[in-house]
Amino acid sequence: MKRTPITRIALYLVLFAGAVVSVAPYLMTLNSAFKEPAQVLTTPAWQPAFPVTFDNFAQVWSEYDMAGFLLHSLIYAGVVTAGQVVFSTMAAYAFGRMSFPGRDALFWGYLATMMVPQIVTLVPLFLIMREFGLIDTYLGLILPTAFGTPYGIFLVRQYFRTIPRDLESAARIDGAGTLTVLVRVLLPLSRPILATLATITFITTWNTLLWPLIVTNGDATRVVTLGISALKGQYSSQYHLILAAAALALLPLIVIFLLFQRHIVRSIALTGLK
């Protein structure tokens, strides 16, 4: 259907408004992070910082071990992301391309666990980690989500199902085994969806607060979300430091998105094609 100039303009205005609503909180956080402590509460968040100060970043970096918190989050999110990509890919290949008794029932039963709220499994997971002596350790942080999630497996499985089976059949005729087909045929064609899964997993893990709050209790494993929440006291809060810490925590996510945005867009485009 042809779009008239008025329709096109209206569409762009709606998209622009959506972009402003989505980006504005991040811009206001970055802007307020450069304000002096008195200005944070006395000026609107969108008012440009004047004079610009970097003291907030220097203070939160030197006095509150922000470098350590960022490093812990990087290790936590990086290992979980690598585990999710590897194990979700293997499980997705089994559910999407291999045939075995009860495959579909097992897959849909596993997928149904997505409807279980995280709070329901929080206490059992904590008790398991305590029995294995993994409280306040990196293993305790990583293990619950490092071996794949229903969402990740479903995402990759659906993408695998769009790849023609003729490619796999041709590889098997040439003598390729299951692992060779997965590594040398399917994975090169699935880079967009794997990049999407890695990006979503990294951002979700980086922003996680509840599980690190439950399973860690020391500075040796404290992630950046806990570090930021510790700046908010019961009776007073240092908002200028909270905003500076939030801006520092936001930068790695922006870098990750800019690196993988091309693959994310391509995966969305390809999944819409037959």
TrEMBL record:
GO terms for cellular component: plasma membrane. InterPro entries: MetI-like, MetI-like_sf. Its main location: membrane. It comes from the Bacteria. It is found in: Cell membrane. Belongs to the binding-protein-dependent transport system permease family. PANTHER family: ABC TRANSPORTER PERMEASE PROTEIN MG189-RELATED, ABC TRANSPORTER PERMEASE PROTEIN MG189-RELATED-RELATED. This is Carbohydrate ABC transporter membrane protein 2, CUT1 family. The chain crosses the membrane at residues 9-28, 74-95, 107-129, 135-156, 193-214, 239-260. It is a multi-pass membrane protein.
